[in-house]
Amino acid sequence: MKTKSWWIVLGAVAVAIALGLAWQRLQTRPLLVELEVLRDRQRDRARLQAQRERLLAAQVPEAEVRRLRDDRAAIARMRREVDGLRAKVEEKERAATKAVVAKAVAAPARRFAMGVDMPSAQWRNTGAATPAAALETVLWAAAGGDLEALAARIRLDGVARTAALELLQALPADLRAKCSTPEQLMAFLSIKDIPIGTATVTTWSQQSDSLQSAVVNLRAADGSNRRPFLVFVREGEEWKLRATEAAVARYAAALRGQPVASGKK
Q1: Which among 34, 94, 120, 141 could bridge 150 via Cys, Cβ 3.0 to 4.6 Å?
Q2: Crossing angle of helices 182-190/158-169, nearest 10°?
Q3: For the purposes of burial, counting CB atoms within 10 Å of the CB of 127, is it exposed (0-12), middle (13-18) or buried (19 or more)?
Q4: Which residues are within 8 A (CB) of 60 and not within 5 positions of it... i.e. 6 or more apart?
Q5: Low-confidence ranges of the chain (pLDDT < 70)
Q6: CATH number of the domain where residue 192 is located
Q7: pTM across the whole model
Q8: Contact indicator for 205, 214 with CB cutoff of 8 Å
Q9: 147: in domain
């Protein structure tokens, strides 16, 4: 009988313990849920804090922001200034172009430029600072029979000068007295080949800084014309007409076949 009562007591105690544990579990479950929620919030807070720190680290300092703004404003001002200067330069260029065009229209044609007719009455001694000036001086000297001035504008080089000197030495004494140098001889012989009338340069060609050539249409008053090809070379500060070996040979052949013509027209 006592044993049975003892087992009943043990069963009651076990049931009581089980009920206590069940009750405790029911009481602690909401706490566990709340604890898990708190842990999630803590993790979110830590994640947000880390993200905030990364953003703060990547954020441009305020001073740098102000500097960038100032630079942007300065660039805008410079762009406006450049645009203004460009407009002024373009306006000046347009004005200069108009002035050049107006001057070209109003100014007379340059002497002995291509296509410009130059009557012999307008030929002048214009020196020899340019090929065009040397050409005009050559024509002026030939038209006036100025042997010295024409000889001063003639250049003989190498073989051509040697041939001209040999031709000069072969001439009669009276003719040698008129032409004391090969250049004077070439001037004397070429004067008759330059007709008095109108000269028109049809071509100017620059081979180098010291060499230019021209084709000149020489029309005489009687309607005849010649189109010599002339070469001018720089000699110091002046330009001279080059007399070629072929020209010397042509004059030598003419002298052998006919009397020498007078030096004046």
Answers
A1: 141
A2: 80
A3: middle
A4: 68
A5: 1-4, 6, 9-16, 18-29, 31-33, 55-60, 100-109, 258-265
A6: 3.10.450.50
A7: 0.56
A8: yes
A9: yes
